[in-house]
């Protein structure tokens, strides 16, 4: 054999083949669709006329191209919630953060590759309150030939939880902004778009989940609600939790899950009854004195061969303020942390941050209903002001005057965060980001405040997964609390509940250059300003740098 040929063969033997995924093309036409729920009809914003919208299927390593065409009167963007978007921030989707919105009559192709992720996520509109109906699931299957690290289910079923207003949701939030007060709560919760029969609309059907006795099913559960955390349970059946936010967890059994807006949970269920119909229930979790929609959404688990007239086995939903039930679920979550799926928790910290999250009250002379004041929300007392140029464009093209890099790493004023509120409830305003060096490590403690009311805030970080290394009630005490952190197998997520009147600590590595939004996933709190962004600088060389924007990036 020629020596050069020997060298080629040798190189081929020692160089691992780079296996590229396939390219998946989707068309999302954003259109209005007249829809009837609760015995009344209204036009809603949808993708392809579907509510919930279509499920996007892909495999790990696939490249996904979604052409979004806007055929409604609103500006539109779509966020691929939980997709890492490594170096592809232009496809992340939050309006005025990574892109200007897609204007009526225009279209934009979201182009991203799914790297090192598999599981259930969601997509949703990321502008105004359009995500109330503009949402759907993302299912990322493992690479071909790679098994699940748990028993393979006979069938997989997507279960999208949501909220429904009889009124136009854009009118609901406009009225709230005008008044300076909280918006009207939803009229019902939904399971795959259906509330189920309720007393004042008994004719309304609900979602049915058909099962066969002796078979195992995996429910891919998504909370796409705007403002409410939900309990989910099925009468007469245990759920085995195997994944949250597209990361595998150590399996555990429970009869009730708690899931915040933006979170996902994969649960195995064994159809271990011989026959029958069993109630599936989604009900609100709120452990603060704040009004929520108290309607329970219902669906039916229906064994094959069971007559339609058979009575349904019922289940008791947890009380609305069942903190213990919620904590039982949250405290059971641990990363799988296996050889194949290790928990790469940062053990050293470059940036030690503490952000308060909560509400405030600012003057508003035109807010008559609020007696000249309006409710606002903030992080570290900064109420975020949305820019009119997208932050990522301003960063990439060095456009000055759009944002400042002086977001405070600690509360500007120290007070008893979960005790008596300070006399001055005002916040400052600004479009501020916190700058991170590429590949630096971050520990961020998110501290709830008792201003107006303590509340559980589900905080979502774009562009990253993080590890939830600790949580507690009251005010975070670094000297004591850090000693109890779990740095071995903490759960890995993209959306985390800050406990009502407490704190949560997360860690992540800033290995994704770009501008990444972080905000409360209760939509009203985002509207009120509970949001900020991290700016992660480029590293060394092209593989650690943000890609240039695509040619069809929408213009403001």
Automatic annotation (TrEMBL):
UniProt keywords, alphabetically: Apoplast, Copper, Glycoprotein, Lignin degradation, Metal-binding, Oxidoreductase, Repeat, Secreted, Signal
GO terms, molecular function: copper ion binding; hydroquinone:oxygen oxidoreductase activity; oxidoreductase activity
Record-linked CDD domains: CuRO_1_LCC_plant, CuRO_2_LCC_plant, CuRO_3_LCC_plant
Residue span, Plastocyanin-like domain: 30-143, 156-305, 407-539
Subcellular location: Secreted, Extracellular space, Apoplast
Cellular component, GO annotation: apoplast
InterPro entries: Cu-oxidase-like_N (IPR011707), Cu-oxidase_2nd (IPR001117), Cu-oxidase_C (IPR011706), Cu-oxidase_fam (IPR045087), Cu_oxidase_CS (IPR033138), Cu_oxidase_Cu_BS (IPR002355), Cupredoxin (IPR008972), CuRO_1_LCC (IPR034288)
Pfam families, alphabetized: Cu-oxidase (PF00394), Cu-oxidase_2 (PF07731), Cu-oxidase_3 (PF07732)
Domain of life: Eukaryota
Details of cofactor binding: Binds 4 Cu cations per monomer.
Family annotation (PANTHER family): LACCASE-16, MULTI-COPPER OXIDASE
Family designation: Belongs to the multicopper oxidase family.
Known role: Lignin degradation and detoxification of lignin-derived products.
Entry protein name: Laccase
Organism in which the protein naturally occurs: Eucalyptus grandis (Flooded gum)
Lineage start: Eukaryota, Viridiplantae, Streptophyta, Embryophyta, Tracheophyta
